[in-house]
């Protein structure tokens, strides 16, 4: 049962950020006022002013010098674990301003209403700005979600980074991936643990700046390999 404070569940947001000085502040500021208890930005080995931008926007900033999307998320989770009062819901969102943080109330609603343990913001079901996802991203998401359906019986349409999960359920998953396999690991482990999962359509726009993954050939290849490896690893 969720602990509802003043009519709202207790929510903490984790934002992994690597060199996102021009966008992370916008992400933090667009989170609806009063919706969340704390916004935690994990400054993931940034060499620009990401820390300063996030701090000025009102976020708590945690430094993680080791690069990796997964390890940044794990660092945020470790910070939350040390909190005196544990949250009901954790929301993950990227720092590149491609997602719309103002859609967060709809993302957490199925959990706060007791109808789900995890909610994925699906770009495949929502409206995507032209050019916001590369053809290889679209194909990769289709392939990964198809494999999850065939191998694990899931019904996901996307590996979208904008997601919410009940905190107690997140701890049950034993998340471990330190890089590109983070999102798919969470979804396949949720299926293995029989969590109640659902998706909502979200709006997606062109990110600010160049993607460190899909923006390079090496990043695209490595991400694709790690996603497929992770799916096979847990069979």
What would your notes on this structure say?
With 235 residues, this protein is of the alpha/beta class. It has a single domain, classed as Spore Coat Polysaccharide Biosynthesis Protein SpsA, Chain A (Alpha-Beta Complex), CATH 3.90.550. 38% of the residues lie in helices and 17% in strands. The protein contains 8 helices and 9 strands. It has helices spanning 24-30, 50-56, 69-81, 104-112, 135-152, 167-173, 182-192, 217-233; strands at residues 4-5, 8-9, 11-17, 38-44, 60-64, 89-92, 118-122, 163-166, 197-201. The strands form 2 sheets. A 7-stranded mixed sheet has the order 5-4-3-6-8-7-9, sandwiched between helices. Strands 1-2 form a two-stranded antiparallel ribbon. A hairpin with a 2-residue loop joins β1 and β2. The chain is globular, with a radius of gyration of 16 Å. It starts with a strand and ends with a helix.
What is the architecture at the second tier of CATH? Answer: Alpha-Beta Complex
The CATH homologous superfamily is named: Spore Coat Polysaccharide Biosynthesis Protein SpsA, Chain A
Please count the beta strands (DSSP E, at least 2 residues each).
Answer: 9
Domain unit count: 1
The portion of residues assigned to helices is: 25-40%
Number of helices in the DSSP assignment:
8
Tell me the span between the first and last alpha carbons.
31 Å
Structural class: alpha/beta
Give the low-confidence spans.
1-6
Q: What average pLDDT do the residues reach?
A: 92
Beta strand %: 15-25%
Named CATH topology:
Spore Coat Polysaccharide Biosynthesis Protein SpsA, Chain A
Order of helices and strands: EEEHEHEHEHEHEHHEH
Strand order of the largest sheet: 5-4-3-6-8-7-9
Please compute the radius of gyration using only Cα atoms.
Answer: 16 Å
Largest sheet: 7 strands, mixed
Please identify the top-level CATH class: Alpha Beta
* Shape, per Cα inertia axes: globular
